[in-house]
Specification:
This protein is an alpha/beta fold. It has helices spanning 12-23, 36-48, 63-76, 100-124, 149-169, 191-198, 209-221, 253-256, and strands at residues 3-6, 27-32, 53-57, 82-85, 131-136, 173-180, 229-232. Strand 2, helix 2 (36-48) and strand 3 form a beta-alpha-beta unit.
Length: 272
Amino acid sequence: MPVAIVTGAGKRIGRGLALAMAEDGYDIAVHYRSSKSEAEETVRDVEAMGGKAMPFRADLGVAGDIEAMMANIRTRLGPAQCLINSASLFDYDLADNWTVETFDRHMAVNLRAPLHLAQRLIEDLPDGVQGCVINLLDQKLFNLNPDFYTYTLSKLGLKGATEMLAQAVAPKCRVNAVAPGLTLQSGDQSQEQFAQVHAMTPMGRGTRIDDIADAVRYLVRATAVTGAVLPVDCGQRLSAMDRDVMFLDTDSPERARPADDGPGEENPGNDD
């Protein structure tokens, strides 16, 4: 069976993407950082579907962890041909209060790690096998505002890198991206608050996990597509906003800040 690596696959959107890829016949390398029990649950769910999966731990901000994980995946599952970079760090800061630490961490996890993982995957591709890399971005990139400043900068970098890498590695590997809109409730946001902002799109609803999974599945199969960014946001990017969508129902950055165990609504992955 072909092998797919899904980062942040223990929780949230990453878990949904891992299950979707398993349904399509892939053995799954389930990456996690600290959510070991959740990653093991994803593995059990894949196995219950008749598929094969294994958990692999790595802090994506640490280059040595990435090297060790990729070597472990090769040994235990075989060389991967598909990489879905779902894991992401999503911390709140602004242009006037970001720190060197938050900047470096966002860049390491959200930009350097996806490229490092892709580099190793491409190096290990068997002869005659075309690889596939899919990066998860954010509709925010089409509708810029200064909230989540260093997070947004890291995703802008990954958007540019998607096109550059696609040029550099074709035809050996295809590289594309999906840019989801508001997807999941986050932080101390109530279900009512989330439902209100989730529906504030031209289509009258927000992005769902299945929508993102469908887009990823399409890009995995679409052998004529590379260097593309596919918005999956129900048209959210078409509605200009001065602030991040998280602030539509609150004026408090701390209230809108995402929980420590994953990203905010706009981001489909998680750093666990």
